[in-house]
Amino acid sequence: MKKKPSHPILLTLLILLIITVVCDALIERKSNIILQGFFTNDDNNYFPASQIQKEYKAQLNQKGKVVFEDGLYIVPGSSKDYTTASASKVVAYIAAHELDFLVTTQSLVEHYSTGVTFEDITTYLPNDTSNYELLYGKDGNGEQKALAVNLNSSRLLKDKPQDVSYYLFIPSTSHRKENVKIFLSYLFT
C-alpha cells in the first residue's frame, strides 16, 4: 500500500504563491519603488499602511512609489493557510531583495534573526542611538548587533496605548537603505 503525500495541494499552492510573489516583486522593481515595507501582526491596527504611505510620501522630495503593506499575520510553525502565505511572502520579498524593512513583534524579529542577515539598525537611526530602545542579538550570519529599533516612541505609536512592542528591522538584502534611513528619520522626528 502506497503512502499518500501529506498536503500535496497546500505544497503546490505554497510553491505557486512564492513564484507569484517573486515575479510580482521583479515587476514592481521596474516600476520605480523607492521604499517598500511590511507591517505584521498588527492586531490593533496601529499601522494602517495606506495612510502611513500617503502621509510619508507627501513629505518626500523624491519621485517614485512608496509601497507599504499591512494585514500580514505570521505565526512560526503554524500550518494555517493565511499565516503560511504571510510568512512565505515575507521570505520571498527578502530573497528577491525587495523588502526594505519589516515592522513586527519582538518574537518575530528573534525568529527571523536565526535565518536572515540584518543591518545594524544604529547605522540608520537619526541622532544619538542612546535615545532609542534597541533589540540586540545575533543575526543569520551569527553577528552580534542591534537588530531592530522599538517603535513605541515613534510618531506612529507614541500617543497610543501599547500592550505589545513593535520593532523595525532592515534585512541586509534591501537595496534602498538610504531611503529606509530617511523613513526612520521621519518616524522619530
Topology:
Blueprint: H1 8-29, E1 33-40, H2 49-59, E2 65-72, H3 81-95, E3 101-105, H4 106-113, E4 134-138, E5 144-150, E6 166-169, H5 177-188
Parallel strand pairs: 1-2, 1-3
Antiparallel strand pairs: 3-6, 4-5, 5-6
Detailed description of the structure:
The protein is an alpha/beta fold. It has one domain (10-21, 33-188): D-Maltodextrin-Binding Protein, domain 2. 36% of the residues lie in helices and 20% in strands. The protein has 5 helices and 6 strands. The chain has helices spanning 8-29, 49-59, 81-95, 106-113, 177-188, and strands at 33-40, 65-72, 101-105, 134-138, 144-150, 166-169. A 6-stranded mixed sheet has the order 2-1-3-6-5-4, with helices on both faces. α2 links the parallel β1 (33-40) and β2. α1 runs parallel beside α3. The radius of gyration is 17 Å and the shape is globular. The chain starts with 7 loop residues before the first helix and ends with a helix. The model has no long low-confidence stretch (mean pLDDT 89).
Number of helices: 5
Gap from first CA to last CA: 66 Å
β-strand number: 6
Order of helices and strands: HEHEHEHEEEH
Query: Remind me, CATH topology?
Result: D-Maltodextrin-Binding Protein, domain 2
The low-pLDDT segments are: none
Strand content: 15-25%
Q: Tell me, rounded to a whole number, the average pLDDT.
A: 89
| Strand-pairing-aware structural class | alpha/beta
Shape: globular
Query: What Rg is obtained from the alpha carbons, in whole angstroms?
Result: 17 Å
Give a short summary of the structure.
Strand 4 and strand 5 form a beta hairpin. This protein is an alpha/beta fold. The protein has helices at residues 8-29, 49-59, 81-95, 106-113, 177-188; strands at residues 33-40, 65-72, 101-105, 134-138, 144-150, 166-169.
